């Protein structure tokens, strides 16, 4: 198999799983360990991956993954945790859904809920929920971020402060090992912090890849979250912290992925 074929396959696996290992790739692609090590080094030099012991992970730091790429990343895991999150959102309530592909997945699972008021700063969420005639959708306004349809800035936070939500659902770019919830855009961080402050119950939807990444701006701690929805068990130290904080962890996988 040529390098031109291997590179896209390696990147697809990394986007799906958040990481790749030398041994798995060598077996999967039918090449030697040395060949895979060279491939990973070249992809790392190109900024496509970051080398770690035994393999590589998606790059992290100060620049987020492109939006369309985030949509493809672990799509099945996002559906699973979105289903679990939506199952805990009752009908006849007011909720907020913020920016992100995970919250968009939650919106898709709310299409059959009745008598919802959904406030959002995510144009994609608003478009999804137009298909639910029993859902009143309010869009905050603000500065439109064209890369992902997100509304951010002072106008957005001022609009959010006019409400008291039954439930606030947020996503994030990364979760640190000490339980800090992280993002890249300070304006988006301010919006997320306001959502948490204005919500009686707070929910975070973040798949396992967020535990392998980092970002520079702090939103809050998992101690400020009531329910944390993810698609794989979290590391034991973080699980212990969540237990101490009374943050409920909900781990969900699609049935077809676990069979």
Distance between the termini: 30 Å
Structural class: alpha/beta
Q: Compute the gyration radius: what is it?
A: 19 Å
Helix content: 25-40%
Mean pLDDT score, rounded?
A: 89
Number of helices: 11
Q: What is the name of the CATH topology of the largest domain? A: Rossmann fold
| Uncertain segments | none
Largest sheet: 7 strands, parallel
For the record, the CATH class of the largest domain is Alpha Beta
Approximate shape = elongated
Strand content range: 15-25%
Helix-strand topology string: HEHHEEHHEHEHEEEHEEEHEEEHEH
Strand order across the largest sheet: 6-5-4-9-12-14-15
In the CATH hierarchy, the architecture of the largest domain is 3-Layer(aba) Sandwich
Protein name: Glycerol-3-phosphate regulon repressor
Pfam family, one: HTH_DeoR
GO molecular function: DNA-binding transcription factor activity
Keywords: Repressor, Transcription, Transcription regulation
Would you kindly provide a written description of the structure presented here, covering whatever features stand out?
- Helix content is 40%, strand content 24%.
- It is α/β, with parallel strands linked by helices and 259 residues long.
- The radius of gyration is 19 Å and the shape is elongated.
- The two termini are 30 Å apart.
- It holds the Pfam family DeoRC.
- InterPro entries: Carb_Metab_HTH_regulators, DeoR-like_C, DeoR_HTH, NagB/RpiA_transferase-like, WH-like_DNA-bd_sf, WH_DNA-bd_sf.
- One of its GO terms (molecular function) is DNA-binding transcription factor activity.
- This is Glycerol-3-phosphate regulon repressor.
